[in-house]
């Protein structure tokens, strides 16, 4: 969420404005979790520091908004850091409130509308051929209706990249919160023009890649073989969220055709996703993001097959969809076993995002086990064993914070 080099450049005065104190104070409790010091990285210290600094951060942010401070993007970051910190302590209602604040500020900062902006900082020969026509169209549109953006545009590529990454961090957290509560997300992907994130921007070609999430969800751009972990996470959590919403919308919106569309996208995406092939602890932790994406996708597939089961027209189709849903749930649990077998026995490579998929899967598997008890007791027993494994995994992840207890 915060690039260290960019942050310290700002802190030293070498680039841009100094970081807003609301962001700095919100960073500290999150940094304590990474500390090697047992005195700092423990549940009581983190809770005490959070209780002191999060209200301070919130008050500073409110003061900044009241006085039209131009560092609004810092306030978005501060809200997301408070959201993550509070959620880690199991304070989900407080975390959702901070999530809503960040999403409310996103459109005002313009970080969700950065389509083709990064290309302005690319070499002229790499810029889009239709750049002039895009400028003309945008200019004509703004004569009719102005943009509600309250911060200046990015000054250079580094600034723009930081904004892109900030936006997608907000997006992922918003989707995770929405999945946790089973509530509608505050951000609509059809409104987003900001390109999908790259893990790095070492190549000039990265500056002109304007692939969007809408391109992916419409099926126009499905190749995941060159995606970084960041983009994989954005795509997978979007599919999981859309699958979950199909189970909570009315039948006139959540049609079988929409389920089939999401299943097609999911299968094509998974066919090109990189495999998790770690064989030692170091690689298991380093590439945990890939494994996490597979977990998310298996959870999404399980929900989609569950929706197919509800819509099934015959007992045979219903049984087939049920069996497919169970199989995907087992595959998700197998991803955890793969991480442990590769050496990440304490699941150090996984964060607050992972238990979201685990809870969704575990809850569904509990009901699958009860439903199939009479016709397939052996499978029901296996599902309960897998659920116990999910509980053990949840205890290991972020074991120093209250979230683990919940």
Summarize the structure.
With 406 residues, the protein is an all-alpha fold.
Poorly predicted runs: none
Work out the radius of gyration: 22 Å
* Helix/sheet category: mainly alpha
Query: Counting H and I runs of at least 4 residues, what is the number of helices?
Result: 16
Total strands = 0
State the helicity in percent bands: 55-70%
For the termini, the CA-CA separation is 25 Å
Give the biggest sheet.
none
Order of helices and strands: HHHHHHHHHHHHHHHH
What share of the residues does DSSP label as strand, in percent? Answer: under 5%
Q: What is the overall silhouette? A: globular
Mean pLDDT value: 93
Architecture blueprint of SSEs:
Layout lengths: L3 H9 L8 H12 L10 H24 L5 H17 L3 H18 L21 H14 L12 H25 L22 H4 L5 H6 L10 H18 L9 H17 L8 H6 L1 H24 L3 H27 L12 H19 L4 H20 L10
Key features of this structure:
mainly alpha; single chain; 406 residues; 16 helices
Notes on the structure:
The structure is a single chain. The chain has 406 residues and is mainly α. It has a domain at 225-406. It is built from 16 helices and no strands. The chain starts with a helix and ends in a 10-residue tail after the last helix.
């Amino acid at each position: 969420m915060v690039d260290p080099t960019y942050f310290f450049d700002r802190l030293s005065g070498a680039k841009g404005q100094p970081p807003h104190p609301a962001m700095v104070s919100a960073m500290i409790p999150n940094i304590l979790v990474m500390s090697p010091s047992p005195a700092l990285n423990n549940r009581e210290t983190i809770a005490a520091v959070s209780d002191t600094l999060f209200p301070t951060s919130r008050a500073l942010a409110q003061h900044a908004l009241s006085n039209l401070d131009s560092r609004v993007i810092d306030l978005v970051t501060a809200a997301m850091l408070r959201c993550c910190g509070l959620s880690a302590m199991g304070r989900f209602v407080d975390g959702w409130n901070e999530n809503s604040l960040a999403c409310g500020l996103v459109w005002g900062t313009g970080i969700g509308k950065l389509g083709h902006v990064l290309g302005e900082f690319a070499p002229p020969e790499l810029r889009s051929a239709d750049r002039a026509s895009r400028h003309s169209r945008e200019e004509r549109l703004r004569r009719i209706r102005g943009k509600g953006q309250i911060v200046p545009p990015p000054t250079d590529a580094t600034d723009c990249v930081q904004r892109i990454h900030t936006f997608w961090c907000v997006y992922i957290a918003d989707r995770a919160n929405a999945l946790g509560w089973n509530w509608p997300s505050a951000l609509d992907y059809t409104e987003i023009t900001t390109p999908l994130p790259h893990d790095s921007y070492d190549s000039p070609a990265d500056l002109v890649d304007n692939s969007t999430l809408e391109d992916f969800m419409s099926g126009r751009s499905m190749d995941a073989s060159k995606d970084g972990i960041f983009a994989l996470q954005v795509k997978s959590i979007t599919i999981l969220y859309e699958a979950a919403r199909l189970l909570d919308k009315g039948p006139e919106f959540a049609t079988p055709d929409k389920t089939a569309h999401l299943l097609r996208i999911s299968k094509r995406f998974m066919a090109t996703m990189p495999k998790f092939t770690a064989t030692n602890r170091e690689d298991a932790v380093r590439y945990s993001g890939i494994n996490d994406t597979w977990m998310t996708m298996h959870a999404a597939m399980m929900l989609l097959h569950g929706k197919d089961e509800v819509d099934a027209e015959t007992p045979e189709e219903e049984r087939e969809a049920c069996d497919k849903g169970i199989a995907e749930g087992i595959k998700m649990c197998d991803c955890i076993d793969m991480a442990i077998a590769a050496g990440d026995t304490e699941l150090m490579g996984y964060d607050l995002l992972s238990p979201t998929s685990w809870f969704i899967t575990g809850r569904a598997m509990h009901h699958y086990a009860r439903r199939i008890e009479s016709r397939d007791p052996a499978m029901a027993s296996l599902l309960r064993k897998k659920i116990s494994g999910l509980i053990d995994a949840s205890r290991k992840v972020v074991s120093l914070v209250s979230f683990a207890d919940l």
